[in-house]
Design a protein that fits this description.
Number of helices: 9
Distance between the termini: 62 Å
Shape: elongated
Helix content: 25-40%
Structural class: alpha+beta
Oligomer: single chain
CATH architecture of the largest domain: 3-Layer(aba) Sandwich
Length: about 325
């Protein structure tokens, strides 16, 4: 197996819509090609897989990395496919540096017994390295590849609305896999995946809130707030009188807010699910809410039902006429 400590990625300049660093280990399953072997039989570095992994992290195509490193694209293609038996060290170094990595050569205990070793951070292999197209070729390493099960998974069919047709009416068969070429969409997809992995939902219990007020927040590990749910308890006896047991309680949702950039990532649903789980722990069986527009679909997806009454959305707005903030309050 390749020794992943041979290459360490540098912290590249992050774009606004993607994570700063990758913190995953190189696994055995990531190596698709046999690496070069040393004369004594020891396993060498699986250079092709590492270069593809670095290209993916830097979001560079073969042509882009070759141009940045000043190396012919054909040379890079031979190295990545394993057809370059013994590439020159200088060529490898230029490719690694151009992809934002660093070539490290060291020995055990080089820093002494009391000093922590300066271990390189491993780069994850390309997750779709084992997938092939109809011609048996690898998919581009710097793109995100996913399997296509129906037209909804294939961007090429969205504009034509194939998903409204029966399979026998599709103009052509859908491919086995696909990828997104648009850089902006690709960055957004990776950023959204990172947010879904890192966001944490928790209930705030030490914020000076009354015992009947419930607050849940969705935040990143660095403390950035992405969403919030607020609710309060009420006694059904206020509405039903002595017909309801005095010990019964129910929840009223005051509001669910998710920052605009993180909507449609499932954060609102996770907030509602956290509230439902906390209700079960507290023995509360009912929750009420008045929603509008997208909030109705969110609550229906979380198990809520439309009440037989007809609620109306009310708003008090004393914004002066002609104010720039008035357009979104209507």
């Amino acid at each position: 197996m390749a020794q992943p400590t041979a290459v360490e990625p540098r912290a590249a300049e992050p774009r606004a819509a993607e994570p700063r660093a990758v913190e995953a280990a190189v696994g055995e399953s990531g190596a698709a090609d046999a690496g070069a072997t040393e004369p004594d039989g020891a396993a060498g570095v699986e250079l092709g897989g590492l270069l593809r992994a670095l290209r993916r992290r830097a979001d560079l195509s073969q042509r882009g990395l070759a141009a940045r490193a000043g190396v012919p694209q054909a040379t890079l293609a031979r190295i990545e496919s394993g057809r370059a038996g013994n590439p020159r060290f200088r060529t490898v170094e230029r490719l690694v540096r151009a992809a934002g990595g660093r070539l490290a050569i060291g020995a055990p205990d080089a820093h002494g017994p009391d000093l922590p070793p300066d271990e390189p951070v491993p780069v994850p292999f390309v997750p779709h390295d084992g997938m092939r197209d109809e011609a048996g070729r690898r998919y581009p390493a710097h793109l995100d590849v996913w399997e296509v099960h129906d037209p909804k998974d294939w961007p090429g069919a969205w504009w034509a609305e194939w998903y409204k047709l029966r399979p026998e009416q599709w103009p052509r068969p859908v491919p086995a896999a696909t990828y997104q070429l648009n850089r902006r969409y690709r960055d957004r997809r990776r950023w959204a995946d990172r947010i879904r992995r890192e966001v944490v939902i928790r209930r705030v219990v030490d914020d000076g809130l009354p015992a009947t007020c419930w607050r849940f927040v969705a935040e990143l590990p660095d403390g950035r707030l992405l969403g919030e749910l607020r609710a309060h308890e009420r006694s059904p006896r206020l509405q039903y009188g002595d017909l309801i047991d005095a010990g019964e309680r129910e929840i009223v949702l005051d509001g669910i807010l998710v920052t605009m950039a993180c909507r449609r990532l499932g954060i609102g649903r996770r907030l509602v699910e956290a509230l439902t789980l906390e209700m079960e722990r507290a023995g509360i069986l009912a929750a009420h809410a008045v929603a509008a527009v997208g909030g109705v679909d969110l609550l229906l997806a979380c198990g809520y039902r439309l009440a037989r009454e007809r609620p109306w959305k009310l708003c008090l707005d004393r914004t002066p006429p002609g104010s720039r903030r008035r357009w979104w309050r209507s």
